[in-house]
TrEMBL record:
GO terms for molecular function: electron transfer activity; FMN binding; NAD(P)H dehydrogenase (quinone) activity. This is Flavodoxin family protein. Residues 3-176 form the Flavodoxin-like domain. Its cofactor is FMN. GO terms for cellular component: membrane. SUPFAM superfamilies: Flavoproteins. PANTHER family: FLAVODOXIN-RELATED PROTEIN WRBA-RELATED, FLAVOPROTEIN-LIKE PROTEIN YCP4-RELATED. InterPro entries: Flavodoxin/NO_synth (IPR008254), Flavodoxin_CS (IPR001226), Flavoprotein-like_sf (IPR029039), FMN_Rdtase-like_dom (IPR005025). It holds the Pfam family FMN_red.
Amino acid sequence: MKIAIIYHSGFGHTKMVAERIAEGARKVVDDVILLTSKMAIQHPHLLIESDTLVFGSPTYFGNVSAEFKLFMESTGSAWANQHWKDKLAAGFTNSSSINGDKLNTLTNLSIFAAQHGMLWIPLGIMPQYDSAGKQLSEPNGMASYLGLMTLSSNSHEEFYDPADLHTAELFGQRIATLTQQLKADSKSNTENFTFLTAKQ
Ligand SMILES: Cc1cc2nc3c(=O)[nH]c(=O)nc-3n(C[C@H](O)[C@H](O)[C@H](O)COP(=O)(O)O)c2cc1C
């Protein structure tokens, strides 16, 4: 079972998020690899070998960064051959404005996964509220649903709310748990099919 996290990070923040997602995923699955988008272009077989691909880009001008887009557009052959079909996919983005049009980046990542025939894992972590109805900062303080959003400083290597990194870890754990479940289900489906065909 293998999970690949592919990211670009101009100033290091998205990389920190990628590392925390990996930390969470490794609680469930041993083989979790981190690849910059440049490395992913150079080693496409690592993506074909993986069961789950997690895509991460900073939000630059309301979209994925140019460097991440370069990776996306390098995957024409994987798309034409449907190499990633029915793999699991998930996405995350970091930026320095509370909103900053992060949703558009996640939307683009999910469309990218859909064009590859992949199955998209949404964040799946409910935002929490205190007894007065005020939203708490953890988990999912950004109240995102399609994927993980984090909020970092623009210039310093820090997050306005370090709890975002805990949410990243939870997301990694969820992605790995679902990867494990899907693999177990496909194994038992294959076994059932073999049993049925053997009986005929
Ligand atoms: C070219 C450029 C465009 C940016 N556009 C946005 C934006 O649309 N929304 C936003 O919230 N932040 C924007 N930012 C700020 C970045 O999201 C922020 O610097 C973030 O920390 C980048 O993550 P990274 O350290 O992984 O590169 C932009 C930064 C750059 C360099």
